[in-house]
Design brief:
7 helices; about 0% strand; mainly alpha
Length: about 150
């Protein structure tokens, strides 16, 4: 495998590893989802790991493209990428382990803001990197709907 492919693989493995770590940290509380009162449009629990796997792969590819860019904004974009990944993990812990749905919703709003900032910075580094993050932004927007619905229904 050539050097660039190995580097790309590492960039993809990183968010997948972060997601796996989050999953490990909430493994004993994941089942609460099926016991919650959910909004009218709610996906089944089995769909979440599939969607997150795809999103983490897209994040990894996007971060690789941003990091490979000669742009002066690549460092800023990778910093924002790291911040949003941290907020992503924190949301999982607050929602599933602490069962604090309102605080989780507020964290989700902060996450959404940082995803927007990351997309803007990625765009400056490499527009393709930014476009790959749009499904993530859409999913987090939908997750905000779910989370807020759970706040009101539980």
């Amino acid at each position: 495998m050539d050097r660039n492919r190995k580097i790309l693989s590492a960039y993809i493995a990183f968010p997948l590893g972060v997601g796996a770590l989050a999953g490990f940290m909430i493994r004993n509380n994941w089942s609460i989802y099926k016991n919650l009162n959910l909004p009218a449009v709610s996906p089944p629990g089995w769909l979440f790991p599939i969607i997150w796997t795809v999103l983490y792969i897209l994040m990894g590819i996007g971060s690789y493209l941003a990091a490979s860019s000669p742009s002066h904004r690549k460092n800023e974009s990778l910093k924002l990428y790291g911040i949003q990944l941290l907020l992503n993990v924190l949301w999982s812990l607050v929602f599933f382990n602490l069962k604090n749905y309102l605080l989780a919703f507020l964290l989700l709003l902060l996450l959404w803001y940082f995803i927007m900032k990351m997309i803007k910075a990625f765009w400056s580094a490499n527009p393709d990197a930014a476009v790959l993050q749009v499904p993530y932004l859409l999913w987090v927007t939908f997750a905000a709907y779910l989370n807020l619905g759970i706040v009101f229904l539980n």
